Amino acid sequence: xxxxxxxxxxxxxxxxxxxxxxxxxxxxxxxxxxxxxxxxxxxxxxxxxxxxxxxxxxxxxxxxxxxxxxxxxxxxxxxxxxxxxxxxxxxxxxxxxxxxxxxxxxxxxxxxxxxxxxxxxxxxxxxxxxxxxxxxxxxxxxxxxxxxxxxxxxxxxxxxxxxxxxxxxxxxxxxxxxxxxxxxxxxxxxxxxxxxxxxxxxxxxxxxxxxxxxxxxxxxxxxxxxxxxxxxxxxxxxxxxxxxxxxxxxxxxxxxxxxxxxxxxxxxxxxxxxxxxxxxxxxxxx
Length: 286
Fold this sequence. Notes:
With 286 residues, the chain is an alpha+beta fold. It has one domain (9-276). It has helices at residues 9-12, 16-30, 32-37, 55-61, 71-87, 99-105, 114-128, 159-168, 173-177, 187-190, 193-196, 199-212, 224-231, 235-247, and strands spanning 39-42, 94-95, 132-137, 140-146, 181-184, 251-259, 269-276. A hairpin with a 2-residue loop joins strand 3 and strand 4 (140-146). Helix 12 (199-212) packs across helix 14 (235-247). The N and C termini lie close together (10 Å).
């Protein structure tokens, strides 16, 4: 990864160096174990089950459930929720940091003023989506408590613990599926990538992590129809998001021959396959 990469829309209005400094401070607070393991995210946050609109798509689309037009507010909502999943490692899964610290973590412009207002808006929206609860503490930073990634308002539990307990009880497959999860590497925060990623870029990073299923160096592919059905993301979002990830050095894409009979005349069917690049192995230069 080089410092001369093209700037995405997010990079043009964000400060990756500020985000990386804030990410380092947060990293010291959460401890070495969480820093090494990253943030666990249930698949249901990204991928639809039984036709439901995944919370990721809902947050990017509008400020309130059923709302329209996510705009730049959509990406702040997603970044704040994912960051809470990163920070809140143990029960009771809550955090009370100043809004300016979250704004700095995302590299928001004017993080002490306008950035603070955007964090407050995102906090209210996440509560509307039943992804967090908010406790006003009268002049002190609000206490934000995680709720389940499904957006049902259910109490948050660690997905690994929940899956293990339910599996031991021989829970039905559809119940277990709601606790399958993937992890976001901590370097996405500590290297300032949260500031660099736009809505499409972050959405496709989550999709690829979910599809990778924890297997390093696994190539991922999906048809446009399947992607639309499972993730409820527009084709333009997928295209621009993957392009951004390639520019940031976070993913590698190649053409793969799907069917070929060995002749020169008959048509070869090809598809794009994508492989995530470990940010720890390819650190960004700010």
